[in-house]
Amino acid sequence: MNLREIYSKKDVRHNGIFEWVKPKISFEIFHPKDNLEQLVEELQVLKKYNPEFVSVTSNTESQNTNSLDLLKILINDLQLPLMPHLTCINNSKIQIQEKLKSIETLGINKILALRGDEPENGERKYFDFHHANELVSFIKEQTNLSIGVAGYPEGHIQAPDLYTDIDNLKKKVDAGADAIFTQLFFNNDKFFSYIQLVRDAGIEVPIIAGIMPIIGYKQITKMINLAKITVPKTLLDKIEQYKDNSQSLIDLGIDFASYQCQQLIDAEVAGLHFFTLNKAASTNQILENIL
User: Fold this and answer.
1) pLDDT tens profile 137-167
2) Domain boundaries of the chain, sorted by first residue
3) Which residues are catalytic?
4) Which fold does the domain 3-290 belong to in CATH?
5) Which residues of the chain have pLDDT under 70?
6) Distance CA 251, CA 18 (A)
7) What's this model's pTM, rounded to 2 decimal places?
8) Cα dihedral sign for 110, 185, 28, 136?
9) By three-state DSSP, how is residue 180 classified?
10) CB under 8 Å to 202, separation ≥6 — which residues?
């Protein structure tokens, strides 16, 4: 099932009467430096929620030479549907072609196409793709994969303004993207406003909300500093209050994300995409709270 079909499918009772539209759930993980067994155990906890897929990030520094092995493990050990990431940065057209063939050979039918972060050392090896829309076009030409792309409710950090960023988003959708997965956000009003602006721009594909539970002080402060993310003052004050109390901070993250997700569900959001940071506990409790 492609991404558009996933997010247009309704949940019904056995007698055919619509009950309620459950949010489509998906999870994001990254390739661990070690201890793949631990990651598999974490995903075993979340598997009970029948995720539409698990997305697997790509590291533009190393290109995750073992990422294919990770995909095989997740398929063989967990039988989970997957959505790998592919990036423009440090990928040549030949490398992308090879990865696309490997992905299709594994029976995977969806992918997330991203520009990716510039290498920290500033040494970019390939310049076959400059922007994500170019990668989307290339994937569309080469495969029948369903393609997801990234969206930024408060604008990409390098975009001069939100409207320019949405113009760039439209290029990705016009190139063949089937769904938009947003960066994390903590202000639902920003997300709702973003949806309206995107629709006003003539973009009609599903928009899936990116949710990242707060699990650590360094984690959240890094995200705030690296991206355009507004944190409500009441939440920010509590983060500072609990910065030296790890469990209280985790509990705060669960409570806030549960409230945030419930509001999104009430607004009939297309789906919730959880950035798990390879940990199941917070996401599991949030889903227990809202489902």
Assistant:
1) 999 999 999 999 999 999 999 999 999 999 9
2) 3-290
3) 28
4) TIM Barrel (3.20.20)
5) 9-21, 59-66, 120-123
6) 34
7) 0.94
8) positive
9) strand
10) 170
